[in-house]
Automatic annotation (TrEMBL):
Transmembrane segments: none
EC number: 2.4.-.-
Keyword Glycosyltransferase: yes
Protein source organism: Paenibacillus roseopurpureus
UniProt-listed InterPro entries: Glyco_trans_2-like (IPR001173), Nucleotide-diphossugar_trans (IPR029044), TPR-like_helical_dom_sf (IPR011990)
GO molecular function: glycosyltransferase activity
EC class: transferase
Protein's name according to its UniProt entry: Glycosyltransferase family 2 protein
Keywords, alphabetical: Glycosyltransferase, Transferase
Length: 367
């Protein structure tokens, strides 16, 4: 059986760290906490789980802090989490089982990351990360901000999921780090350009975000998933700025990098739906239900764009086209994903009335 060191870097995480550690403690053999300057009760909370608590002076460099944490580990493998991540019970059990069966020749284990959720708890942002790595390989974190773990060798893809449980609002910390690096004349890598553009967009600086997304794409040194994501975010930026032509161009720009993804199919479906071109909208929404997402789930994916959303919109389209049976069929498919959604339940009642499947109660048509 392999042994595992859990490594975290923390700062003022008293509201989340207990849930994180309690969710995974029984699956790991030691817990390493690196504190970068907490002023709350974080250290007191984590002391109930470990005495391996280290201070690290914050230097606006996440990789430096994470690499320091990794150097404190003593077990065969290192698991890393953030303070607002948890392992649900079934995933903790899977990790315990993995400890007993993992071939020690494996250099890294991937796990899914459910990062964001809809109002019903369904993941709307899901991707993979290298989560468990062999300590003796001395894998390093790269990048001062939005850092990544550079791994190589034999990779095992697990079905374990880490769940993100953010309760804090987004701050301007990352944006300020980027801006300070620019002021110091630091040369941005393509990855830096991409993540700086993301920060600008998150802070509603849309025109400047567009500038940096275009700079990123112009490098020609883009991971395909980041390039596709940039096209999506460019489309969002242009939408917020009211430039519908460039919003649409950004959708088509994504086709340079891969076949149409479900998200872009839904965008095009909505474009034609709002113009009452229902047959064209049906084409794109139907394609969204079958179009492939990111290969091997490494890219950021929102399952909504290939599941309930296109079916709900197909219901709307077919209702306008007078094909109520098709509208009902697609609404039922959407209901399979979101059984309590008020819009879907409204459509069900209305269409059953039209098709005389219910008691005959009249209902308002689909908007």
């Amino acid at each position: 059986m392999i042994t595992i060191s859990l490594c975290l870097i923390v700062k003022n995480e008293e509201d989340t760290i207990r849930a994180c550690l309690s969710s995974v403690a029984r699956a790991v053999d030691e817990i390493i906490i690196v504190d970068t300057g907490s002023t709350d009760q974080t250290k007191q909370v984590v002391s109930a789980y470990t005495d391996r608590i280290y201070d690290f002076k914050w230097i606006d460099d996440f990789s430096a802090a994470r690499n320091f944490a990794f150097r404190q580990a003593t077990k065969e493998y290192i698991l890393w989490l953030d303070a607002d991540d948890i392992l649900k019970e079934e995933d903790c059990n899977k990790l315990i089982a993995l400890k007993e069966t993992l071939d020690p020749s494996v250099d890294s284990v991937t796990m899914f990351y459910n990062y964001a959720f809809d109002e019903y708890g369904n993941p709307i942002s899901r991707f993979k990360r290298n989560r468990l790595v062999k300590r003796e390989n001395y894998f390093r974190w790269i990048g001062a901000i939005h850092e990544y773990l550079e791994v190589s060798g034999t990779i095992f893809e697990s079905d374990i999921t880490v769940t993100h449980c953010r309760i804090h609002h987004k701050s301007d910390r990352n944006l300020k780090i980027f801006q300070n690096r620019l002021m110091r004349g630091v040369q941005f890598t393509p990855r830096d350009l991409y993540y700086y553009a993301n920060e600008l967009m998150d802070h509603r600086k849309y025109a400047k975000a567009i500038q940096y997304y275009n700079k990123f794409l112009a490098t020609g040194k883009c991971w395909v998933e980041d390039a596709i994501s940039s096209c999506s975010k460019l489309s969002d930026c242009y939408q917020y700025l009211g430039n519908r032509e460039m919003e649409l161009d950004s959708v088509f720009r994504s086709f340079r990098y891969d076949s149409p993804r479900p998200e872009f199919c839904c965008r095009l479906g909505y474009y034609f739906l709002t113009r009452q071109q229902y047959e064209s909208a049906v084409f794109w929404y139907t394609l969204a239900t079958t179009a492939p997402g990111p290969a091997h789930n490494w890219g950021f994916a929102n399952p909504s764009f290939s599941t309930w959303l296109p079916h709900l919109q197909l219901c709307v389209c077919y209702d306008h086209l007078g094909d109520y049976e098709a509208a009902y069929r697609h609404n039922e498919l959407a209901r399979g994903y979101r059984p309590q959604d008020p819009s879907i339940l409204h459509n069900k009642k209305y269409l059953e009335s039209v098709l005389h499947l219910a008691t005959g109660d009249e209902s308002a048509p689909i908007a």
